[in-house]
Amino acid sequence: MAAFSFPRSSMKILLLENIHPKATERFAQEGFSVEVVSGALGEAELIQKIEGVHVLGIRSKTRLSGRVIEEAKKLLSIGCFCIGTDQVDLEAARKKGVPVFNAPYSNTRSVAEMVIAEIIVLARRMSDRSMRLHQGQWDKSAAGCFEVRGKTLGIIGYGHIGSQVSVLAESLGLKVVYFDIQQKLPLGNSRSLSSLDELLHVSDFVTLHVPDTAQTRGLIKAQELSLMKKTSYLINASRGRVVDIEALAKALKERNLAGAAIDVFPEEPESNIKNFKTPLQGLDNVILTPHLGGSTEEAQENIGLEVAQNLLKFINEGSSMGAVNFPQVDLPVLKERHRILNVHRNVPGVLKAINSIISDLGANIEGQYLSTDLEVGYLIMDLDKQASDQVKERIKALPESLRTRILY
Questions:
Q1: How far apart are alpha carbons 406 and 196 in whole angstroms?
Q2: What confidence score (pLDDT) does residue 1 get?
Q3: How far, in Å, CA of 155 to CA of 271, rounded?
Q4: Whole-model pTM?
């Protein structure tokens, strides 16, 4: 392994929010210094804590604003140990040359299994009966309870989780339809529908699996709820701002829906509390869970390993493969060479200027890979050892350069 220009033991990694110990183990195995904090941190506290941190790991409760990222002078990369990255100002991170990694696949099965469980529990009104029996009330009745076999499940968002729900649902005998803004290949006997309205109209169960974007916020409001059958159920394990909670509560109170299962909320506390409030509390046949979709031991271990591995690839090799806000670059490690990493504004002529510097210094390029997006370019170069320091300093001095360093 190449000798790093910055000693691993001096590189500080901060992991917040009870990230799985497997992630800590992976970093420690590589010789990095790791600090673990159990909860999320607010902006002011995080700004103080992040000073001197090179790699930051978070989950869904920590908010990384542009101000926090700007204050993190030594920050090289961010790992979101979860599916979503909407808690991070991705644009601010990109402009500072900081790639952000996540785990888009590792908790897919956990979320899908929970959705299937909620479909059955809602159809059988089991949560209501369980609560009443805890209170000493024996309430045995078949009224309002149904088998799910033969019913129609509508999936909004047919990505990794939505398609997995589709496969599991068909094994229970559910008919599956879905709607996605992108063309998606149907699995099994599922069918793609041409509009959201059509899906809401025909489905007995509707489950949401979409990201938090300007297009999806408020996707399900009073108008959309009015299109659903009065005997139907809504499940949201995606993002809290996708559903208008007030409108959903009103529809449930007026018996325009048979029930709902909500795992995510528009505003969620940064740590466990005892006084969380939502208009859905106390309503019949409503399952409320505190963002538990991916909260299984298996999912958290998989997430810990996946994100840690991506971060290690970036730290050790400069690989940005898997980053959500950054050009994708991966170059095999060459022995007896120095590797230079450069992030620059994506304007014409930068690569020409860099290659001119290398030519003027008489350096020899053994490997070079550049990838760009609309705003930034990311370049990895392997050079002769003798010229690398001079090359780095002259590239760093280019007005377009955002960040330049010798990796090893």
A1: 51
A2: 45
A3: 30
A4: 0.81
- Per the annotation, the verdict on 63 as an active-site residue is no
Q: Of 45, 51, 267, 268, which residue is the catalytic one?
A: 268
Which residue do the tokens 């959903």 mark?
248
Give the strand order in the sheet containing 401-406: 365-372, 376-383, 338-345, 401-406
- Only one residue has tokens 């670059």, namely 329
Model pLDDT for residues 282-327, shown as the tens digit of each residue: 999 999 999 999 889 999 999 999 999 999 999 999 999 999 999 9
pLDDT of 248 > 70? The answer is: yes
Q: Which of 60, 166, 184, 180 is nearest to 112 (CA)?
A: 166
CA distance 77 to 324: 12
Spatial distance between the Cα atoms of 237 and 25, rounded to a whole number of angstroms: 30
Q: Is 118 a catalytic residue?
A: no
Domains of the chain by residue range: 10-107+297-325, 108-288, 327-408
DSSP for 242-298, written as a single string? GB-HHHHHHHHHTTSSSEEEE---SS--SS--S----TTTT-TTEEE-SS-TT-SHH
Same fold across 10-107+297-325 and 108-288: yes
Determine contact, residues 32/8, Cβ cutoff 8 Å.
yes
- d(CA 408, CA 405) in angstroms, rounded, equals 9
List Cβ neighbours of 183 (8 Å cut-off, separation of 6 or more): none
Query: What's the CA dihedral at 335, 327, 87, 47 to 10 degrees?
Result: 60
Q: What is the CATH number of domain 327-408?
A: 3.30.70.260
Residues 54, 59, 239, 394: which is the catalytic one?
239
| 138-153: pLDDT as tens digits | 999 999 999 999 999 9
- Which CA distances in Å does 316 have to 2, 72, 339, 405? 9, 20, 10, 13
Q: How high is the pLDDT of residue 6? A: 65
Virtual CA dihedral for 383, 310, 268, 265, nearest 10 degrees? 110
109 is catalytic: no
Does the domain spanning 10-107+297-325 belong to CATH 3.40.50.720?
yes
CATH of 108-288, one of 3.40.50.720, 3.40.50.2300, 3.40.630.30, 3.30.450.40: 3.40.50.720
Catalytic residue among 59, 94, 129, 291: 291
How many CA atoms lie within 13 Å of 136's alpha carbon, on the beta-carbon side?
Answer: 0
